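Reminder to self: keep the SMILES exactly as supplied, no canonicalising. Ligand is zinc ion.
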Amino acid sequence: MTFAQGPRWKQLERVRNRKGAFTDDDYAPQDQAEFLDDCKILVIGAGGLGCEILKNLALSGFTNIHVIDMDTIDLSNLNRQFLFREADVGKPKAEVAARFVMKRVKGCTITPHYCAIQDKDTDFYMQFKLVICGLDSVEARRWINSTLVDMVDPNVMETLKPLVDGGTEGFKGQSRVILPTITSCYECSLDMLTPQTAVPICTLASIPRQPAHCIEWASILEWPRVFGDKKMDTDNPEHIQWLYEAALARAKEFNIMGVTYSMTQGVVKNIIPAIASTNAIIAASCCNEALKILTNMNPFLQNYMMYTGDEGVYTHTFEHQKKEGCPVCGTSAIDFEVSPDITLADFIDKLKEQPDIQIKKPTITTQRRKLYFQAPPELNELTRPNLDKKLSELADSGEEFAITDPGLPFNLRLNVIFTK
Amino acid sequence: MASTAPSGMPSSKEKKYDRQLRLWGADGQNKLEASHIALFGASAAGCEILKNLILPGIGRFTIIDDKKVEESDLGVNFFLDDDSVGKSRAERTAALLGELNPDVEGDYIEDSFSNLVATKPELFQPGWTPFTHIIVVSPFNTDDVLKLSPEIPTFLVHSIGSTAMLRISASTRCVVDTHPDTLIDLRLLNPWEELSAMVAEKTKDLGIAEKDGGMSDHEHGHVPYVLLLLKFLEDWKAAHGGNPPSTYAEKNAFKDMIRNSMRMDVPGGSEENYEEAIAAVLKNIRAAEISSHTKAVLEDPRCINPTPECETFWIIAHAVREFMNRDDQGAGLLPLSGGFPDMKAESSTYVALQNIYRSRARRDATFVHENAKAVLRKLGRDPELITLDEVSLFTKHANFVRRINYRTIAAEYNFPPDDFHKKAVTSALQSYNAEWNPSLIYDYVALRAWQEYYSKIGQLPGEDDNYLDSDIREQMRITAVDYLSSIGYQSNIDHRLDQMLQEIIRAGGSELHVIASLIGGIVAQEIVKVITSQYVPVNNTVIFDGIKSRTSVFEF
Ligand SMILES: [Zn+2]
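Structure tokens returned for the bound complex:
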């Protein structure tokens, strides 16, 4: 493995070998040869951002790249995922992308992993110098963020893996640099996401007003009513067609206009519009930061950039602050004030409403007792009566609650403090 | 593009382009597919721009470049491979880019920009040129780009080390479908007959308890908030000499008035529709204002006096102006957009109320359409040239339309500089502050010096290791200072200028792939916006600083 060497890399080398106006005084590119030769980078996601990221890293001189993605190629990927062709539809993204870039850029090795990020253990993640994320899933991002924070041993520098994260929607996107435990982490900024306000079931069931209400009625209420336990497959055109027709009939009944096949698909698959150019901007920004972090050739982003291309071009670059009491990178349990008179069930509803926690099916314990378990069935049955009990009957003020949840990649610790 | 009915199963083309059709629709896609883009300079940035345009499906592209592929190209340009070395760069990049999308036709010309501008002027003449849009990537000579017609949309691109820049030049762009965040316009202070009638009907028992024959809790909690606001506005006006709440304090008092009428003894302790009404007060109780952008359109001479040759945009704008001026039509108001938000309500009431807004919007659009037909007749044009659909799109966006007058590149490079340019650069320099307003104005001055150095000497500053960086920097600094005095700027020059000169000399004309790719994304976004006539393109210069990861936009 040799980082960017030879006449092919003349342009990169010219910039890297000269001192710039913003490089450190003791910048010495020749001293980095060993570090860069041994510089393994992990790319998470081989989709719209991932394809761009792999190309960018290969053309930034990095010769040892791993990519992990559990998806296969779909026809609707081809308007931006430029390493794939029509003949590749159905094949694993990570494998096709890796093969393409290796063929194009000689001397670059890309190792694909066709699996979920959760399938890999800490040893796997420990081998990399840096991780770049191009994902569209909040859940996966939270998982890798918390994994990398947990891996940090403050006494061993090498355990700190910078995480560069990008995301896009339409003409907008953002990129950021996370130094786990040092800077603000993904979890610190979770409340910056626009909350997904779910439409109340009663609106869907009895007073729909929007085409989307009719579509959600078809997928959430009508499908299970008609098909029972049969699982809906949003990639199956017949299922979408059924939902579309059901939604259309309902819309007609209530004189609501605007239900289309495309909208049906958009609502049930939660489709986010995506274009090549925005992916290019954000992926390049992420790789620019990765290159600067690993080579020191210029200072890197502190620590967040938002790009908006809808109306002219606008960027907002700022330092996102670490959140005090962040459940992932904070060190202590978070204080959570609540009335002692509410029931455990009310308490769980309150937790679900918190935009900075985002849980769905929590399991709750204290040092002393099991408060509520989702599973296994025996424990669920045993703890279910607690749901109707007041908190004051179950715990003392200031007692620590440990909360686990399928949507939560870490254990949440709350100091539950009773208000007067 | 063969488009099927919007409601049916998608065609395979619609499937492939699904994620972008959700942004710019079939109309935007048709425009993309009718474009023919010329790229002068098959550099990394140039090829990255084209990649981002070929993928979404432009019609054609032509790459013009006279260089042979060198090995050093392979380290920065993804659309060249080992087999390409020694061959024509135009030919090889056209071939590898062409693989990205079988729907797009690619071509190349092995020649230089300078030579083509000099020997084949017809390629650049409006009416003759096959190209709908022209991209020129640095290095290029200033004199050559000055020969380009200001009529053809042109995109000048720099990608030098960590710095990148785009300059757009085009004839006036008129954009209707600007995709604003919201099109909702409730017109609460200007209700019309049908709306007032519905308010009277649906709120007549509002204050009466159920036991006294009033509304049930269910009915009371489902009166749409728009009707509540209109009802309480009537009450407020009756008590305040006919005036609506206007100050912040009055609006708060108005909120209290609503809150006091809410039923609290219901499950949850409050009513959602009342909460929605209270939340909508500050934003929606205000006089209908015309945006500065729409004013600029309505006061443009092309709107006031449309010509037999003008774009339909100006005819419709004229018809909107007439609509506003006529007491029997808009009576001072813009046509209604018809945009209406979701709110707590029974389905049938909601749909009826929504239809009142939609009908009003349709009525307004029909007036504008009639006005437009009359103008077309007067100008001796086909009165059916403009459809009601086209008018409706305009009236829906009436308060968000844009007219962008691009300054020519010649105006930017005029010597001595014109007043507009002097003022633009001087005010940016004066407001520059490294701490709280660190704009990229000095980056522009440095890039201008770079451009002049290359145009005069024919070498990229910093390219030749035999020259000392400090000598070149001194030379470029003199150029930069000369330029600053030519615009009349004599005040202090920030250290940023020297830093930027050092940074671009450090690059020696080299591209970093990541920066080429990033500006490639920015330029492609802008070209898509210009081609589709949707969203709002930059006017006229954007600079990206890859060190701090930020942009500045200027009009030069
Ligand atoms: Zn954190």
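Points to follow up:
The CA atoms of residues 28 and 160 of chain A lie 22 Å apart.
Residues 201-269 of chain A form a domain with the Arc Repressor Mutant, subunit A fold (CATH 1.10.10.520).
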